[in-house]
Every structure is written in structure tokens, then in C-alpha cells.
Amino acid sequence: MEDEISYAPMRRLMKEAGAERVGEDAAQELGRALERIGIIVSKEALDFALHAGRKTVKAEDVRIAVKKILR
Questions:
Q1: CA gyration radius for the chain?
Q2: CA dist., res. 20 & res. 45, Å (int)
Q3: What is the pTM of this model?
Q4: Which of 12, 65, 66, 69 has the greatest number of CB atoms lying within 10 Å of its CB?
Q5: How many domains does the chain have?
Q6: Domain containing 46 — which CATH number?
């Protein structure tokens, strides 16, 4: 999987979490982790949309998927 999430947003997230300094490798690793999590959430959201008889994934599908995964 190619890294698609750029360094700057990952660095910002880590700083918002309290990190004083963020190494580029740490930001890249967070990006990779979030991409993997995003795929899991997306697959679950798609399942909810298909179950509802839709081809379009809606925000509510994503919210439900996140709740299910994070419980």
C-alpha cells in the first residue's frame, strides 16, 4: 500500500495530542495506521449501505461503522 496521507496532517494530529516534536518516520507510521483503519471502517460502512439496499455509502453508514469498530 502506497502512503497517501501526507506528513503535515499527521504531524498536526500528533501535536494536537500533545507531542512537542514529531519525527517524519512517526508521522508516516501514523499515516499508514490510519489508512489501514480507514479501509476497515470503509468496508464496514459499505456493508451497512448494501444491507440498506444502497450502492452509495452515506455519512451515517460511516458513523455506525466507527461505533461498531470502536466499541
A1: 15
A2: 35
A3: 0.85
A4: 65
A5: 1
A6: 1.10.20.10
